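protien #1 (seq + structre)
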Amino acid sequence: MPHTASTARLPRAVVVSAGRAPARPSPALVRFVAALLLLMAAMLVAPRAFAATRVVFDIDLREEIAAGRFDPARDMVGVRGGAAPLSWTRSLIAPAAGLGRDGWYSVTTSFERVPPGGTVPYKFRIERPGQGEGDAGWETGGNRAIELVSDEVRVTRAFNAPGAPISLSRAGTIERLEPLPERFVGARGVQVWLPPNYERDTQRRYPVLYLHDGQNVFDAAAAGAEWQVDETAQRLTVDGQVQPMIIVAVNNTARRIDEYTATAMSRDGHTQGGQAAAYARYLIEQLKPAIDARYRTLPDAAHTAVGGSSLGGIMSLWLAVHHGDVFGTALVVSPSLWWDNEFPIRDAQKTPLPMSVPRPKLWLDMGTGEGAEAIRQLRKLRGVLYARGWASGDIAYLEAEGATHDEASWAARVEPMLRFVDRQFNAKPRDGNRQQRDPFPVEVRPPMPKGQGTY
């Protein structure tokens, strides 16, 4: 709970007459006392993000051992998660708990920083020789979550058991819409965040930002972590730092991989992907008309943006390249540029771009903690886009130092993303492609701009 000023009425000061007024303290003493009080106040309200939180994981594997699903002589169990020091790509191994606790495994770690929202998604995973990095070994069900609410948090539960419930935080007015009938893709949930004063300012129309993986946008119920888009948008709008906009969060489904990719590829032993065009038709022909009919929107491309991370990042890029007449701005966040032998980069390089449509404005980012190959691919994409005629002012590029591939890292970048989108929504119209070139097909790429990030 935030610290708030007390509204209690202060007692009246009592004036006592004396023959001689007391000596006034020196100005130096007054300044010293004031500085001391400010320091004490700062210590009281300082955010907990700078205090380490110790977390103990106690894992009960007795049922797994009894059922033959875990062999203590061969297997190990670990914890994976979405905020450092946990990782989704490697396990923090939990040793056997010791005498008197047969079948229990325990490990302790410390979180040096509390991620946005204060929750960390995690799951237990059984590790055994030759298992690889597929679906084997994971707990059943979705991510669990822990809340870093004190100096020490203890998680004690059986493997596969549900996690403790977490508190959910939401800001502003968020409406849940009934799923649209299945036409191009399966039905899905949609949530709409409305800006402050939407109901009062009935003559105003608003730009719209569409976000993929919408169940992770406004709260942590689905994945154990969230982007905190509602809290950030509410704060920036109320403070006058961005103009009001409508934000539409579009949930994914069990066919997420298929719907967020434009080509099919063999992955984990079977073919996946290739339904991006169908998902795009859902967005453009079903969802957007429904949103424009229900809410007071500015429906043109200059006031319509789309965004997403990972596979949602390459889907946003695909929409910008192939449907720039609908989506004038795209947030391409930690994009999975590795998909199908770097198809997203090849697609951006070879797809004909109409001169009649301005180049969509693009936010490109990647965390340096996502690996050198991911950074190399993002730089390669940037070079292709510059060669295809994007002006430097039309691309915001960021390599986020230390950031990894998870909701906490993306939540930390939501504010500059929204500022970027706001600038595009409120930019003055310019003369079409006056600053753009169309060198298709292109082989020559211009030098990269200096610096690791501009936005």
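ok now protien #2
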Amino acid sequence: MTGQFYKSRRSRILILIICITLANLLQWHPNARAISIEKETELGNKFLASIKKHFEFLNDEFAQDYINRLGEALAQEIEVKPFPFHYYIVKQNDLNAFAGPGGHIFIYSGLISSMDDVDELAGVLAHEMGHITARHLSKRIEQGKKISIATMAAVLAGIFIGGKAGAALTTGSVAAGIQTQLHYSREDERQADQLGFKYGSLAGFDPSGLIRALTIIQKNSWMESNKIPPYLRTHPTGPQRIANLESMLHSFRARPNHDAETLRKQFPVFKTLVQAKSNDPDKMEQIFKKDLEDGRNVSLAHLGLGIVYKIKSEYAESVRHLRAALGSMPSSVVIWRELGEAYQLTGQYQEALPLLERILAQRPNDRKAMLLLAESYENLGQYGKAISLLKTLSFADRVAPEVYYHLGMSYGRLKKLALAHFYLGLYFKELGRREKARFHFTEARRLSKGNLSLQRKIKRVSKGIL
């Protein structure tokens, strides 16, 4: 369905990344008939690393958890999964989504913002999952091995140059070559549609959501399609495909599902959060204010303004709007977290405690809430409670540098200076500030004489620094 509309330089860069990655693959497998699952997994990891260098992902625990839960609900009905699925929200206002190699699925914030309900998002996600389970990209790669490096270079030059000059470099046989490599066939689309309808309906979502999503994209984007080289649209669509989708509807009916209903109820908050955290805050301030003036989605407008004002460092206004949102949605974990953080940023640590403690009572593994609560305890002088939470966070697979910082500060307040320097050393090591890290590790080693366990830890983590 997607990958059709590339309106910005970043989107062109994304196509460049795809082309380079696939070109490298062709060099790795000059005689292979198809890429193996193991090699595609390796390729997918490298592809993801490249995407992260060029695009910003939405870093929000609730939003990520929501898209993960939606993906998990859809994946429950998939019998054979060639790869684990991974989902990412790209902070880009285009109406776009795509499935990369190795099970990585990317949804643009602009597409989420354009949707009216979770069934539309589920339709898009299930369709991309259909491409992955049918291994369509692997087949495109197999066909693409006939494309020469010279052809690929011409295409890349055209992508970089853009406009008429760039388009001139990527016409004729060049266009045909790149289509062979990247362009899903109509049969691929038909199969992904069928699989997507199956996954979505069995998981409790309305399969017509995909049709509505396609209609939204057509309405908002096709009017500008003359500005885009048509062969860069990797998912063929049009009236015939819509007609085929509509004819398929009678064969798929959503069955009742508790997870789907929960996600359906939470979608408006999810969408508001994505909009507020992915777009220009001044623009979103005006949009949410207009909603308030018109009396439209008032509680969501208050939530959006609370988030926007927090981004703009207008914390008093943030607290005011988040309190108003909480009055309408008193059980919203999102509002608890956002208001708890706003309280903390205004120095109202005592007010933050019950909100953050309530989150952890319901969601014990919520890292954001755990860190905010630890910081509140630290600021209130309750260092033992802060350290307990921070130590839990320090055992996670990925540790935020500020966890080490607050551990160092809390241990310092308790006069446990060896541990304080140890964690501050870790903090500066994570930041890449070797001189600072060396100073703190040296102090930790000096102060920890007789503590063999800590000395071993210092030796291990300071390797290459001391």
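Residues 9-258 form one domain.
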